[in-house]
Amino acid sequence: MRLNPFNPGNINVGTTGGGGGMGRAGGLGCGTIILAALGYFVFGLDPMQTAATIEGVQGSRQVASAPANEDVQAICTSNPYATETCNALSSLNDTWAPIFAQQNAAFRPPTLRFATAQQFNTACGPASTGMGPFYCPGDETIYIDTAFYDELARMAGNAGDFARYYVIAHEYGHHIQTITGIAQQIRSAQQAYPRRANELQVLMELQADCYAGVWAGRNRNLLEPGDIEEGLMAASAIGDDTLQRQAGRRVNPETFTHGTSQQRMQALRLGLGGDDRQCDRITALG
């Protein structure tokens, strides 16, 4: 995908190792962090899956800003993966802001923080680099250790750039759900119907996949041959059923958090039409 170079003034970027760190704001405890790590290192599950517990936690909102004295240009050019991620963030901001404007809705971009410390605090609680990419609604921040992209290439069987863009676009989708109130609606439904908690979490993750497709669909002029296939391969590789089989476990739909490989690919395809309203069909609970 031929993304334009990021505009430092258009993105809010920092690191987890610099100054101006964030304090804890309730929500996630150490036990959940340990569980996420066990899911990855013991069962071989994708960190994006085990980090779902973070995405589903609503701490008291503390909107983050880039720490003082941090150079966005330096951070975003620290390695090729960081540059790709900043380029994607800039493009995502440029894509979603007009969508909100057309609907007369308020828009605010998320913060992106690169994990430069092995352990760090978020508004959702303590975290570590081994957890993989995740979005914290408490501080409206996407956290990512770019080393995850090498693991993604191994899992998805390719190292295509669009597979990596799909990851950041998915996490950005959770930000869209937060600022539109969809995430809170899902959490309220989970509390009201605890037996459907996993099912509802799957719907939220699939909608984030759909939103990733919306971004790609609205930037088709930047797509290169094979990009969509790379994204679909990545979506398939991190489906709950595929991950459970690869870990040598029985496929158990009751434990799904992100959806099957087929569901994730379908959600991504649904968004490729570029109409974000189509994604509302996924989380329609009525």
SSE blueprint and pairings:
Blueprint: E1 12-15, H1 30-41, H2 47-50, H3 52-55, H4 72-76, H5 80-102, E2 111-114, E3 119-122, E4 125-128, E5 134-136, E6 141-144, H6 148-156, H7 161-180, H8 182-192, H9 197-217, H10 227-237, H11 240-246, H12 261-271, H13 276-283
Helix pairs in contact: 5-7, 6-10, 7-9, 7-10, 8-9, 9-12, 9-13, 10-12
Main β sheet profile: 4 strands, mixed
Quaternary structure of the protein:
single chain
Mean pLDDT: 80
The secondary-structure class comes to: alpha/beta
Main sheet strand line-up: 1-2-6-5
Show unreliable segments: 18-66
First-last Cα distance: 37 Å
Rounded radius of gyration (Å) = 17 Å
Q: What is the strand content? A: 5-15%
Task: Encode the helix/strand succession as letters.
Answer: EHHHHHEEEEEHHHHHHHH
Number of helices: 13
Number of strands: 6
- The geometry reads as globular
Count of folded domains: 1
Q: Helical percent range?
A: 40-55%
Structure description:
The protein has 286 residues and is of the alpha/beta class. It contains 13 helices and 6 strands. A 4-stranded mixed beta sheet has the order 1-2-6-5. Helix 7 (161-180) packs across helix 10, helix 9 (197-217) crosses helix 12 (261-271) and helix 10 packs antiparallel against helix 12 (261-271).
